[in-house]
Design a protein that fits this description.
By secondary structure, the chain is an alpha/beta fold. It is 31% helix and 18% strand. The protein has a single domain, classed as Glycosidases (TIM Barrel, Alpha-Beta Barrel).
Length: 402
Amino acid sequence: MRAVLIAFLLFAAGQVPCLASSARLDGDSSVMMQGFHWDSWKTSPWWGVVAADAAEIAKAGVDMVWLPPASDSADSQGYMPRRLTLLDSSYGTSAQLSAAIRRLHASGVRVIGDVVLNHRVGLNDWADFDSPAWGADAVTSDDEWNKGKGAKDSGWGVPYARDIDHSRPYVQASIKNWLNDLRDFGFDGWRFDYARGYSSRYLLDYSRASNPAFAVAEIWDTLDLNRPDAHRQALCDWLDTVNGEVSVFDFTTKGLLQQAFYSGEFWRLKDRKGAPAGLIGWWPAAAVTFVENHDTATAWPFPSDKVTAGYAYIMTHPGVPCIFWTHFFDRGLKNEIAALVKIRRAAGITSASSVEILRAEHGLYAAVTDGKVALKLGDRDWNPGSGWTLAAHGQSYAVWTR
């Protein structure tokens, strides 16, 4: 009752209209990297590439790397899992994966595994599941296979694989065993793929049973740019159902930020209460911010010439920022991104840092975080005044420290 009363008072004050759990109010200083892109599997073994770059990743100030799905899969990217417990995939063998994890750990980098729990495919048929073996009762009754004997889907379905009935105790037990085996193998936490596909109560149960050091869920809802509050409210609503124990990717911020750069509409980055307009304005400690990922790079891309300005925003703002592998290693932006990470680290910015937005209008955004770092986005002139030192600058951005 006390938590509900506190949430109501916060809502009335316009600070955070969701039942923000006290479990995630403390700031997290982590910086994450997505350790792959959509076509990484074509460079085989990809695990060898990751291992070779582990020291350079750590040197850049990154302390978590999100790896692609490691299990045997019907597709090369790993998102149609077939034999969960077999860790030989298009990315390499289980031995090569183990070596990559050891190299990352030796560099002080935690390893986040991409786990696909919503759906699965069979070995040769629609649902001849093996490793672990499940029956037709593990498939939801409303799956397009039409032979599923489980309950109705507890979330959103997919058309390309069997939707799993997570209400089955033996399914729950085998998923928990698999996740704990992955923890024993060396994974430190999870990125839960397609978390809208099944009830969050199962996801929370799996997370608690495997005790990850960090966990983040993919909640990718359609964003109406003219109604961003509805979008971030949906993220908050989901976070409430997991007691804030699992983070989510801040797709609201991603959409608003890239629209601001496409159109110059930087006013979109400030809400009516003066806070950041994405999830980081309401529940920053549970937000993972990003400029691009393996899916959005083609389906919903950030302006290619403004990528480093996007990183200037997420590195100087709350949330846990996530760097896209392609930007860091393949686009020649390594030094610029690393410099921004260094500024974040030196200033002690965390997922719960405080932002004061000074300007948010057409062609210009300016803000100060924790009173230590000032950011300008856009092509109009602005500076924070005396007492500040220019620390980084590039196309459409500048960062000062004091």
